[in-house]
Amino acid sequence: MKSIKDHLMFILPLMAMLIGIEFILVFNRITSSYENKLKNEYAILVVSQKNLTTPYLRSIDDNIDSVEAMNREDIAKEVTSGMQDAALAAIMKDLPYFYRVHLTSYMSLEGLKKISAELKKVNGILNVEIFGENYHSKHTIFRLVKMLLNIFIVMLFIVSIMLVIKQMQVWQLAHKDRMKIMEIFGAPMMLRSGILFKVAIIDAIIATILNMVIFLFIKSKWSQNSDIDFVKNNQDMLFNVSDFFILFVTAIVIVAISVFVVAINTREVPEG
Amino acid sequence: MASIISATNLTLAYEKGKHIIINDVTFNIEQGEFVFITGPSGSGKSTLLKSLYGQIKPREGMLNVGGFDMSRIKKKQLLQLRRNIGIVFQDYKLINEWTVEKNVVLPLIITGYSLDVQKVQAEKLLSHVKLSDQANKYPLELSGGEQQRVGVARALSKNPFLILADEPTGNLDEFSSGVVWDLLENACDQLNATVVVVTHKIPTIFNIPYRHFIIENGGVHEVH
Ligand SMILES: Nc1ncnc2c1ncn2[C@@H]1O[C@H](COP(=O)(O)OP(=O)(O)OP(=O)(O)O)[C@@H](O)[C@H]1O
Ligand SMILES: [Mg+2]
Question: What CATH fold (topology level) applies to the domain A43-130?
């Protein structure tokens, strides 16, 4: 019984840390994919007398990804529907060029305004529309959610680290006498801490597997019933097989550091 | 004969303790010698033994053990030296989470001997110290005297070239003490180990030649 408790005291904080890391992985995937989606859906509308090309606009601001020309004839036809062909021709002659300008990243409103100002300075550009209001509210919510989740993850980490430190003190107490006696009989540090390391590695494996089970469960069950379309459509982001390796390596690193700290702390200091 | 232990103007003091425990002593112990150390409680007998296995560094003077200068010895060399020293502690220092059997072969575990060798050696030594039937118990399930004998068995398990024993019979009756003295005599006589024993009472029956040091007031004097 006591030994199960001893294990749990390390497995739980370890799991909390791994959950934190898995959250970061999942969250980064979801946000970057969502960000991408928002970015792709968004375009600045530019009205220009001159023909604009992607390389030219990029030279003005490197946040610009590409320029997509809107079909002038469609626009002209819409305006002149029901009129004579001559009217269409006349309008086509005076009609400026319309462009959708796509950006490389999901930027803040300030960034957009800056680009807009730069574009307006370009000779021949008549108007630039950034749809600021709508964009700004979406962007703010997005950043807020991102920040809240980051705060949550940081808190999770702080608590876990405190628990791991607590566990290290427990280990130190439990293993100090044995490690000191082994040292007097000439055991090198690796051997002295080997026993503790074995125990800890087992904990690391258990914690990693439990975490994997939790996330696989969430992935299969929760995301299917989710009302959030985005989660539903992007299930694969919830758990990747490669995450398992990242989690396992992290767990091993945490274990190695903890055991090493305990070994250093119980090391003999010559008296006198 | 080669010196196993050589102290020249050796002074020992604890970091925190203000006063000096061993003050400016010079002595030599040769390979295969048997040395008894006696002296009043608190005179520094255990402290002198500690200096011999490097737990306390010389404050001043020279101390050489098994060819190593104990003032300058590197950690790695110290561990190597210790693997070849058998130590019996006044307070036993057994590993309470390990069985008696495993405790006895700690030096073999550290050197990496196979389980078979460990098993054979544990059986042999436990029978020597009359504890064969306690092999699978844990130290805290033994009496003080039994724990002490486990400590003696452990010190002998790897046939060390140097044995340092701090009151190895302190908790033993006459019969068990006799067993321990026989074992130490034998290690010295048959295996040519150097043996340094701290005791408050030199056994009346002792079959091999020995030297006798008295520690008092910081000095080490040999009784001739
Ligand atoms: N770790 C320590 N730090 C400071 N002083 C110590 C330490 N260990 C022992 N001493 C002091 O050193 C002196 C000698 O102690 P030591 O243990 O060597 O005596 P001893 O001769 O072995 O006594 P005993 O026969 O009672 O075992 C004592 O005054 C003791 O208080
Ligand atoms: Mg003592």
Answer: Alpha-Beta Plaits (3.30.70)
At B77-116, the pLDDT tens digits run 999 999 999 999 999 999 999 999 999 999 999 999 999 9
B33: its two tokens: 């010698």
For chain A, the structural domain boundaries read 2-37+138-265, 43-130
Question: How would you classify residue A112: left for phi > 0, otherwise alpha for psi between -120 and 50, otherwise beta?
Answer: alpha
What's the CA gap between A124 and A63, in Å, rounded?
A: 21
Taking residues B115-119, report their average pLDDT: 95
ipTM above 0.85, yes or no: yes
Residue with tokens 């390990």: B98
Query: Confidence band (pLDDT; 50, 70, 90) for A235?
Result: low
CA atoms of B71 and B68, how far apart (whole Å)? 9
Q: Which residues on neighbouring strands pair with residue B46, listed in sequence order?
A: none
Q: Cβ contacts of residue A184 below 8 Å, gap of 6+?
A: A268, B53, B55, B82, B87, B93
Q: What is the mean predicted confidence (pLDDT) over A39-55? A: 85
* Pick from A183, A196, A212, A185: nearest CA to A261: A196
* pLDDT computed for residue A59 by the predictor: 84
Answer yes or no: do B57 and A272 touch at CB < 8 A: yes
pLDDT score for A36: 81
CATH for B3-223, options being 3.40.50.300, 3.10.290.10, 3.90.79.10, 3.40.50.2300: 3.40.50.300
Task: Tell me: pLDDT of B16 over 80.
Answer: no
* Atom 31 in ligand 1: residue holding the nearest Cα: B42
Instruction: Among B10, B18, B19, B21, name the best residue to mutate to test ligand 1's pocket (greatest count of ligand atoms within 8 A of Cβ).
Output: B21
Is A190's Cβ below 8 Å from some Cβ in B? Answer: no
